[in-house]
Amino acid sequence: MSFPHLLEPLDLGFTQLKNRVLMGSMHTGLEEEKGGFEKLAAFYKERALGGVGLIVTGGISPNLRGRLAPNACQLSFPWQVGKHKVVTNAVHEAGGKICMQILHAGRYGYHPFSQAPSKIKSPITPFTPSSMSSRQVKCTIKDYATSASLAQKAGYDGIEVMGSEGYLINQFISSRTNIRDDEWGGTFDNRVRFPLEIVRSIRKKVGDDFIIIFRLSMLDLVDNGSSWDEVVELAKWLEKAGVTIINTGIGWHEARVPTIATSVPRGGFAWVTERLQKEVSIPLVATNRINTPEIAEHILSSGQADMVSMARPFLADADFVNKAAADTPELINTCIGCNQACLDHTFALKRATCLVNPRACYETELNFTPTVNKKRIAVMGAGPAGMAFSIYAASRGHEVVLFEAKPEVGGQFNLARKIPGKEEFNETIRYFKEQMKLNNVELRLNTRLDASVVRDEHFDEVVMSSGVVPRKIDLPGFNDPRVVDYQQVLNGEVTLGESVALIGAGGIGFDMAHYLCEPESTTLQPDKWLKQWGIDKGYSHRGGLMEPQSAEVPRQIYLLQRKSTKMGKGLGKTTGWIHRLVLKKHHVHMKTGVSYQKFDDQGLHISVDGQDETLAVDNVVLCAGQESNRTLLDEMKATGLPVHLIGGVDVAAELDAKRAIRQGAELAIRL
Fold first, then answer.
1. Continuous H helices in 524-622
2. Which GO terms describe its molecular function (predicted)?
3. What is the pLDDT of residue 655?
4. Which pLDDT score is estimated for 572?
C-alpha cells in the first residue's frame, strides 16, 4: 500500500473514522436551490462511496442574521430538519460519516441585517454591521447549540464550528474587529469567551458521543491578527471545552495574501499545523492546497498533522480516496486550484462545479450512460474540449478517433502550464492521457484530419475542437519580426529584449506579464513564496505577517489595455486581485485607455487620454485575444456528415477551459 498513513483509521473514542481524509467544507449553491437537498445528497453520496473518511458540509447559519446572503441556508427550527435527513441518510447508506458546519457570517454577511462584535465595516462587503448587544451575544451562543442539536436530530455525525476565515467567531477573537469594553471584549480572555461558550453549550446539548470540530484560525494573515501564543492558548482551552478535532483555518477572506489559489505551493501551510501538534492532544487537521495523495501522505507521515482536509479535490474527483487505496493515483482527476467554477461561482451566487469535472454538483443531471446507438466519431484537436469529449463519448461506448496535428496533446493547456503558478495544468493533461488509454480512445498525433480521411474511414460524425489562433493587429510596423504573439513567446520561438510592451490586458496579457517577470516560479519554491508574500514562519508578528521580500525585476514590462475600465476587470473574482498584486510587486507598468499607432525603431507609439507618447521597447507581444481556427470547417461540412463545434473553435473569447470541457461533456451525452 503506497499511502498507509492516509488510509489508516482514526479512533476518536466513541467512533472511528475509516481513514485520515476529511472532505472540507464547500458551499455549493445547491443548499438554496429548489430541490437542492436531493441533488446535494447525490453529491455527498458519491464522495462517501469514493472513500472519504469524514465529510463536512458547506456553512449553515445558526440564525437569520448570521446568513451569508439573504436567501442562504440556516438550521434553527425543527421543521428544517427533514431536508437535512435526505443528505445524512444518503451518506450513511454509502458507508460514510458527515458533519454539518455551523457558520455565522458576522460582518461578512451580504445583507443589511448583519451583526458583529463591533460596528466595523468589512472591506469586502457593502454593509456595515450592527454591534451585538450582550443579550444578542448570549442568544447567538444559544442559537449555535440549538443548531447543533437539530443537526444531531437530522442524523449528522457531528458539527464543525467555523471559527476562522474572518467570520463572526474570528471577529470576536481578534482585537482588529472586537473593540468592545464589556465581558465579550477587551482582554484576550474576554474575546475568546464567545467561542469557548459556544463549544461548551454545544457539548452540553449534544452529549459526549458527537463529533465537534472547531475550525481554528491558526494564521490570520491580517494586521493586528492573533499572536501565536494566543492561538496556542485558545487551542488548549478548546480541547478542555470538549472539542473532538481542531481543523486548521488559514487567512481571513479580506487578507491580501493568497491561500488557496493555484499559485500557492502544495501543502504550503502544513507547517503551521505542525507547530500546534505538540501543544494539544486531540487530532489536528492540515488544510489548503493539498491535492494529491502523495502530498497528503507526506504531511501525515512526517507528523505535521493527524488528518488532511481536502475540499476542491473532491469536486475534481469523487473517487480520490478509492483511487489512492487502489494504488492508481495516476487516475485521479487532480484539482488545479483555479477557483473558476467553484469559488467564483459561489461568490456570483451560482451553483458551484469544477473546471476539470463538469459533473461536480450535477450528479443527478450530467451522466454518461451507455449508448444504444454506437457511432464512429472523428475528433479534430486534442485540446481540453477535444480530450474531454473523447473520453466521455468513448466511456459511453462510441468509437472515437482523436486527431492532433502537433506531437502532443493539451492544446492551450500546454501554454498555460508554462505560466508561473499554473504548473497544475500538467496534472490535467496527465489525467486526460490516462483516461484516453482507459477508454480506448484512438489517438493520432502529428496527424491532420481532412475530408478524405473522414470519408475513407467511414466516420458517422465529426467534432471540431481545433481551438484558436492569436488575433493579429494590422498597424504600421506590426509586420516587424520584433512584434510577436503570446504563443510564439511561450513556445520558445522568439527571444525578447529587456523592455517589452504587451498589447491586451485580459487573462492572456496578465499571464504573459507574470511569465516575463518571474523566470523561476516561486510556487515551486515554498520558502521563497512565503517570503515574497510576507508570511512569517517564525510567527514573530501578529497575524503571521512580515514585510514582503522585494520581487525581482528582470525586465521593464508595459501592460496595455484599450478600455478605460479597471485593469484586469474580467479576471476571476477570487483570483484577479492576486494577479494584479503580483504584477504590482514586479513593477509592471499598467496603462488603460490606450490607442495604438505604430511600431518602429523608436519603439511603440501610443496615445493615452489624447496624449501621445512613445514606449522605447525592444518587443511588442500581442495578447489581444484570439480567433476561432475554422480553416477546415467548410471542408468538413462538405462531407455531408453532422459537424459539431466545441471549445475555442466555437467561441473564441477569452480562453475558457471551463466552458470547453463542459461543452465536450454535454455533447458526449447528446450523441
1. 526-532, 576-585
2. 2,4-dienoyl-CoA reductase (NADPH) activity; FMN binding; iron-sulfur cluster binding; metal ion binding
3. 60
4. 87
Rounded distance between C-alpha atoms, residue 376 and residue 217, angstroms: 54
What pLDDT, on a 0 to 100 scale, did the predictor assign at position 613?
Answer: 94
Residues with a catalytic annotation lie at: 167
pLDDT, position 153: 98
Burial category of 372 from C-beta neighbours within 10 Å (exposed 0-12, middle 13-18, buried 19 and up): exposed
The answer to whether the Cα torsion of 268, 273, 277, 282 is positive or negative is: negative
**Superfamily assignment of 376-469+637-670 in CATH?**
NAD(P)-binding Rossmann-like Domain (3.40.50.720)
Q: What is the pLDDT of residue 654?
A: 58
Q: How far apart are CA 341 and CA 320, in angstroms?
A: 19
Report the candidate in 58, 55, 59, 57 with the shortest Cα–Cα distance to residue 92: 55
Q: How far apart are CA 54 and CA 77, in angstroms?
A: 25
Amino acid at the residue 446: N
Grid cell in block for residue 231:
492561538
List the domain boundaries for the chain.
10-343, 376-469+637-670, 472-519+554-624
CATH fold group of domain 472-519+554-624: FAD/NAD(P)-binding domain (3.50.50)
Name the 3-class secondary structure at 21: strand
pLDDT of residue 653: 64
Over residues 124-141, the pLDDT tens digits come to 999 999 999 999 999 999
Q: What is the pLDDT of residue 630?
A: 82
Other CB atoms within 10 Å distance of the CB of residue 142: 16
What beta strand segments (E) does 195-327 contain? Answer: 211-219, 245-250, 284-286, 307-310
Alpha-carbon distance values, 186 to 217, 320, 343 (Å):
19, 46, 35
Residues 659 and 356 sit within 8 Å (Cβ to Cβ): no
Axis-axis angle for helices 507-517, 576-585 (nearest 10): 40
Evaluate whether 10-343 and 376-469+637-670 have a shared fold: no
Locate 509 and state its grid cell.
496579457
Third-level CATH fold of 10-343: TIM Barrel (3.20.20)
- Whether this model's pTM surpasses 0.70: yes
